[in-house]
Amino acid sequence: MKEGKIVKALSGFYYVQSEGTIYPCKGRGVFRKREITPLVGDYVAFDSKNKYIIKIMERKNELNRPPIANIDQALIVSSAKKPKFSALLLDRFLVMIESIGIKPIIFINKMDLVEDTRLEIFEKIKSTYEDIGYQVELISSIEDSNLPEIAHYFENKTTVIAGQSGVGKSSILNKLNPSLFIETDEISERLGRGKHTTRHVELVEVCGGLIADTPGFSTVDFAHIEAEQLSDFFPEMKRKKINCKFRGCLHNKEPHCAIKQAVNDCVILKTRYNHYLTFLEEIETRKPRY
Fold first, then answer.
1. Which residues are within 8 A (CB) of 9 and not within 5 positions of it... i.e. 6 or more apart?
2. Exposed (0-12), middle (13-18) or buried (19+): which is 3, by Cβ within 10 Å?
3. What's the topology of domain 227-284?
């Protein structure tokens, strides 16, 4: 019996990497009976002779879309222009990633499209999120000068990519490993599809780490988050909420709220707090699940 990591799932086979070799394996019938599905990223024990996965090790986290486990970090890609930068959308992705227990890293792409008069705005955005505790990079969509600055983020990490359509997720990966999407333009022109045609999940080696070779996830909902939990996924609010007078404070209409006071004192950014209220209303007004 050997141990390894699933790096690809395709057509009922799970490709397990162990000691530099890839083994195509099937899942045992007992997994189906227990309604357990092996995921890309799973650490497993397997029979290398008969090519069967025997045991799935405990996961530290998992995503449904894309279906992948044991993720170290999520690269959240926003664009400065085309599409226009949205702090609200960035905060949506940050909350979702924080709620799964994955470390977020922020890349703001297409800085080469920003007018010189607006560069200072994005430097301010960068410093604002860095003050909260996030790592932020401003990168160009057409130059290679950023490569040494961003390559180190991926070393010895398993990474997924998040961001709305058109922000340049694939172009960043192309910079890091030009062989990843070499056929996408040709295929998309011939079939009239989007530029990324991957139909399965695969972990590919990039800059000494593994990146999920998928389009990432471009939609975000908070179906798994309760109202009382939401402030935990705003790091600057989580640090302050312990000082609220009332237990279970939602930091909205309650008196003696430490978070509202921090907003008034300009310790917590007003726009981030407004985004919190937007998400809170969304959670409180969603339809109940049965």
1. 15, 38, 39, 40, 67, 200, 201, 202
2. middle
3. Ribonucleotide Reductase Protein R1; domain 1 (1.10.40)
What does the pLDDT look like over 264-287, one tens digit per residue? Answer: 999 999 999 999 999 999 999 987
Residues 198/8, Cβ–Cβ less than 8 Å: no
The mean per-residue pLDDT over the stretch 26-32 comes to 80
Domain boundary assignment for the chain: 2-58, 68-212, 227-284
CA gap 99, 237 in Å, rounded:
14
The DSSP bridge pattern shows strands 103-109 and 73-79 to be: parallel
Topology agreement, domain 2-58 and domain 68-212: no
Model pTM score:
0.85
Return d(Cα 98, Cα 93) in angstroms, integer.
8
2-58 has which fold? Answer: OB fold (Dihydrolipoamide Acetyltransferase, E2P) (2.40.50)
What is the per-residue DSSP string for 194-244?
Answer: -S----SEEEEEETTEEEE-S--B-----TT--GGGGGGGSHHHHHHGGG-
Contacts of 141 (CB under 8 A, 6+ apart): 79, 109, 110, 111, 112, 113, 168, 171
Q: 68-212 in CATH: which number?
A: 3.40.50.300
